Amino acid sequence: MADQHSTLQKDFYRESGKWLSTFEIWAKCINPNLHFLYVLRKSQKYKHTPFLKIVWKFILRHYQIKYGFQIYPETEIGEGFYLGHWGSLVINPNAKIGKNCNIAQGVTIGQQNRGKNTGFPKIGDEVWIGTNAVIVGGITVGNNVLIAPNSYINFDVPGNSIVMGNPGKIYESENATEGYINNKI
Fold first, then answer.
1. How far apart are CA 160 and CA 127, in angstroms?
2. Contact 162, 178 (CB under 8 A)
3. Intervals of the chain under pLDDT 50
């Protein structure tokens, strides 16, 4: 059986724990995080339709500047994406983010241009990224990982772990994101 809910509905479900109608989604767009997420998902949906691609990219650019989110339609982001707070967030267009991920304000997920980790991060499912964390380079972050606020990560992180500090230190934890990621899809 095909999934009856759109990616946008799944993103909004993460915030409220309820499946929302189109009208209810529009009403929730008073929240800057959800408003930006709505515009981002629309620009992703229409990125292969010439005219609508231009329209939605223009609208997205306006809200990138207004809300301080630097996330692009090219970025692969799984369903159930949750932005904890609005403002000052940078995600490289080549980064990959899994399902049920939470990202707080001040986070940078970026490219590394030199050294052994040249490239872009790949972030697994059910990853919670705290305020002002920096994740850079051609690294992989596994599933069920909690990245503490102000952590710096430029190395692979195995699943089922917590990362803290600058430089980051890994602690194994089977329930790393328990209680942090609500309303999973």
1. 10
2. no
3. 1-2
Q: Are 177 and 160 in contact (CB under 8 A)?
A: no
pTM: predicted TM-score of the whole model, two decimal places: 0.93
- In the residue annotation, 85 being an active-site residue is answered as yes
Please calculate the CA angle 118-99-20 and round it to the nearest 5 degrees.
140
Q: How do residues 141-181 score in pLDDT, each as one tens digit?
A: 999 999 999 999 999 999 999 999 999 999 999 999 999 99
Structure-token pair, residue 44:
């992703």
Please state, in angstroms and rounded to a whole number, the distance separating the CA atoms of residues 17 and 100: 13
Rounded Cα–Cα distance for residues 133 and 135 (Å): 7
Instruction: Give residue 86's pLDDT.
Output: 78
pLDDT for res 2: 45
Contact yes or no for 16/183 (Cβ under 8 A): yes
Query: Dihedral through CA 173, CA 178, CA 180, CA 181, nearest 10?
Result: 110
Residues paired with residue 140 on neighbouring β-strands, in sequence order: 122
129: which DSSP letter? E
Q: What is the DSSP letter of 131?
A: T
> Which of 5, 48, 62, 85 is an active site residue?
85
